[in-house]
C-alpha cells in the first residue's frame, strides 16, 4: 500500500512538472555549430528566480520522500531545511543527511532534545526541530565553513566526528536525496540542452 502511494505521488509530481514545463517553455530551435552536432536552445518564459525556486521545490520534495521513507519524526520540516540552507548558503541535503547518519533522521535522539545532528555529542537541547536545524546550520556556516574554510563533507567530517567513515556515510544520504531529486526532474535546469 505504501509503495502504491509513493508511485501515485511520483506520477502526480511528474504530471505537474510536465505541465509546468509545457506552460513556461517557449520555442525550441536548433543552432548550427561548426564541428559539433546541432545544439537545442530552449527559450524559457521562466525567470531565473522562478527557475531557482522550482529547483528548491524539487529539493524539498526529495527531502520529504527520504524523511517519509525512514519514518522520521521530522516530517513536515522540509521547509525549515530549505530555508536554512538558503539562509546560510549550505548544500540543501547536508543537514538532513547529517541527521540521517547521526540519529536515523531524528528517530534516535536524547528525549525532548530536538537534536538529530549529534550536535554537542547529542547533549545540546533545542526547543524545536526548527531551532535545532537553524542553530546547527548557523554553526556549520560560522565554525566550519567561514572560520576553517571547510567546504566539503570530507573537510567538515574531520572536525565534526571522530569516525573516519563519517563523511562517506553522510555522502550516502546526500546521494540518496540527489537520486530522488533526479527522479522528480523532467526538465533540465541547464539551458541550452545539448543533444
Describe the structure concisely:
The protein has helices spanning 2-24, 48-69, 78-87, 94-103, 129-146, 153-160, 166-184, and strands at residues 25-31, 39-44, 193-194.
What features would you describe in this structure?
The protein has about 200 residues and is mostly helical. It has a single domain (about 45-190), classed as Lysozyme (Orthogonal Bundle). It is about 55% helix and about 10% strand. The chain has helices at about 1-25, 50-70, 80-85, 95-105, 130-145, 155-160, 165-185, and strands spanning about 25-30, 40-45, 195. Strands 1-2-3 form a 3-stranded antiparallel beta sheet. A hairpin with a 7-residue loop joins β1 (about 25-30) and β2 (about 40-45). The longest helix has 23 residues, at about 1-25. The radius of gyration is 19 Å and the shape is globular. The N and C termini lie far apart (about 40 Å). Residues about 25-35 and about 190-195 have low confidence and may be disordered.
Amino acid at each position: 500500500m505504501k509503495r502504491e502511494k509513493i508511485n501515485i505521488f511520483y506520477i502526480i509530481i511528474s504530471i505537474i512538472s510536465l505541465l509546468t514545463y509545457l506552460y513556461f517553455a517557449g520555442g525550441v530551435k536548433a543552432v548550427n555549430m561548426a564541428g559539433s552536432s546541432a545544439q537545442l536552445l530552449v527559450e524559457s518564459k521562466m525567470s531565473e528566480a522562478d527557475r531557482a525556486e522550482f529547483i528548491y521545490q524539487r529539493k524539498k520534495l526529495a527531502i520529504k520522500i527520504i524523511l517519509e521513507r525512514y519514518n522520521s519524526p521530522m516530517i513536515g520540516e522540509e521547509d525549515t531545511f530549505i530555508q536554512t540552507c538558503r539562509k546560510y548558503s549550505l548544500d540543501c541535503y547536508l543537514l538532513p543527511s547529517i541527521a540521517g547518519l547521526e540519529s536515523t533522521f531524528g528517530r534516535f535522539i536524547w528525549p525532548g532534545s530536538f537534536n538529530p545532528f549529534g550536535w554537542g555529542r547529542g547533549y545540546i537541547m533545542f526547543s524545536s526541530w526548527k531551532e535545532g536545524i537553524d542553530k546547527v546550520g548557523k554553526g556549520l556556516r560560522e565554525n566550519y565553513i567561514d572560520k576553517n574554510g571547510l567546504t566539503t563533507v570530507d573537510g567538515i567530517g574531520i572536525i565534526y566526528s571522530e569516525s573516519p567513515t563519517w563523511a562517506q556515510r553522510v555522502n550516502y544520504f546526500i546521494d540518496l536525496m540527489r537520486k530522488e531529486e533526479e527522479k522528480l526532474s523532467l526538465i533540465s535546469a541547464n539551458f541550452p540542452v545539448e543533444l
